[in-house]
Amino acid sequence: MTKKFNIPKTVKTVMDKMKKAGYEIHAVGGCVRDMLLAKTTKDWDFTTNAKPPQIQELFPESFYDNKFGTVGIPVKLTGGDRAFIYEITTYRSERGYSDFRHPDDIIFGDKLEEDLKRRDFTVNALAFDGETITDLFNGIDDLKKRILRAVGEADKRFREDALRMLRAVRLSVQLDFSIEQNTAAAIVKNAYLINKISFERVRDELLKILSLKGAAGGIIILRETGLLAQILPELEKCFGIPQKSPKRHHIYDVGTHLVKSLEYCPSDDKIVRMATLLHDVGKAVTFQKTLEGVITFYNHEIVSASIAGNIARRLKLSKKDTEKLANLVRYHQFTVDERQTDSALRRFIRNVKPENIQDMLDLRTADRLGGGARETSWRLELFKKRLIEVQKQPFTVSDLKIDGHDVMKIYKTGPGPLVGKVLDMVFNDVIAGKLPNEREILLSRITNLKKETEMKI
Ligand code: ATP
Ligand code: MG
């Protein structure tokens, strides 16, 4: 197939340089797929018959990653300030996958065919030499039909590398493609093998799925293929847990509500999305039904937070992400009663942390919409306004517009318990609303305090 394609100038330069030196060079994989779908891509990968030292000779600025046998070429796109890395990999064939994840050895090949044969899906096994597309497995046809089909025998390919099953789900959401029947059946059959894959690799794919627009649909596909039961069994258990009960607003079972919430989550942040997906995950274990038929989930937010924390640690999320995830889940049940005192609101802010408040409100929006409620209510709106007001007040002594140095200067003293005591007094006046947090006013208050104590003496 020969057709004019729009490729970046930098891609053309790399390819021309390789060709001029007498080597074969093809763009390959996702970039060719996306080019044919008329999607822009910055991630260009190439495959060649040249060996790494020969590639490096042509590109002095390149670096060689021994582990993957890949030469990286930093390129700067016009107008962009970030350098991108184009990856050139020598044709490869792989032999044997006795552990379901790593090829036993990677062997450099000298034929493009070998290299394309080891790729996961037909639409990812297309190569482009600058003029012609090489399509050995009917990838273009599948691209037109919008389907993901394993290259070769699906069952064998997933047994070779079980991560491909998660990639199938992720790519189907990312591209809005369906998974071809045989390929899908092979995933169902081999879903249990995903446990052979390192948690880090599973995490990366899962987080990618969560950040996609169709994330909720992705969770449904994970469920249908049996992968969800393997990677998030805690969530799988939530499907079928009823919540409908007299005087309760819930219309969905717990699992469906969680997926619906994710669907409506207004945040793009993957941790907020994960928290949304897991916010009620403890309901499967706290479920109780009274004789009158009332369903309760006592302390479910505490149990959910603990389960979410366990999941995050299992998936090797960073400490910071783990804490944020567990914290969002832990406090998602916050009340928005207009009779709450300011100090109750302040406690809420302290628990959630000011930098996570918007994320928590996004989780609430998702929770409401995912439960069939309206996006907001006057109570929630009032609560948001009060949050803003309350945050204008200092939260700790260190938020005051004065500090210990000011106290020492006015009192003409050095560090000591007196300084803390004065600061506490001023702080209490400010949070009680007796004084505004303004420097000049606080300084004169301290001066007065000093005078008052002197008079007492
Ligand atoms: P994305 O748009 O997310 O970058 P991609 O298809 O380019 O999608 P990459 O992870 O960048 O995905 O991989 C590049 C190419 O390498 C794929 O298109 C595919 O040909 C091949 N590939 C990646 N992972 C595997 C795998 N586990 N098994 C076989 N081939 C793979
Ligand atoms: Mg890619």
Secondary-structure topology with pairs:
Elements: H1 9-20, E1 25-28, H2 30-36, E2 45-48, H3 52-58, E3 63-65, E4 70-76, E5 83-90, E6 92-95, E7 105-108, H4 112-117, E8 126-128, E9 133-135, H5 139-145, E10 147-148, H6 154-160, H7 163-175, E11 178-179, H8 181-190, H9 199-211, H10 215-224, H11 227-231, H12 233-236, H13 254-264, H14 270-278, H15 283-286, E12 287-289, E13 295-297, H16 300-314, H17 319-330, H18 342-352, H19 357-369, H20 378-391, H21 404-411, H22 417-431, H23 439-456
Parallel strand pairs: 2-5, 10-11
Antiparallel strand pairs: 1-2, 1-8, 3-4, 4-5, 6-7, 8-9, 12-13
Helix pairs in contact: 6-8, 7-9, 7-10, 9-14, 10-13, 13-14, 13-19, 14-17, 14-19, 16-17, 18-20, 21-23
Bound molecules: adenosine-5'-triphosphate and magnesium ion.
Report the biggest beta sheet as strand number plus sense, adding barrel if it closes. Answer: 7 strands, mixed
> Overall 3D geometry?
globular
Strand percentage = 5-15%
CATH architecture heading of the largest domain? 2-Layer Sandwich
**Mind telling me the CATH class of the largest domain?**
Alpha Beta
Q: How many distinct beta strands? A: 13
Any low-confidence stretches, pLDDT <50, length ≥5? none
Q: Distance N terminus to C terminus?
A: 98 Å
The CATH topology assignment of the largest domain is Beta Polymerase, domain 2
Structural class: alpha+beta
Instruction: Calculate the mean pLDDT score and round it.
Output: 92
- Bound small molecules, which ones? adenosine-5'-triphosphate, magnesium ion
How many discrete structural domains?
Answer: 4
Within CATH, the superfamily of the largest domain carries the name Beta Polymerase, domain 2
**Largest sheet, order of strands side by side?**
3-4-5-2-1-8-9
* Count of individual helical segments: 23
GO molecular function: metal ion binding; nucleotide binding; nucleotidyltransferase activity; tRNA binding
Domain tRNA nucleotidyltransferase/poly(A) polymerase RNA and SrmB- binding: 176-237
Organism: Candidatus Gottesmanbacteria bacterium RIFCSPHIGHO2_01_FULL_40_15
Domain CCA-adding enzyme C-terminal: 309-444
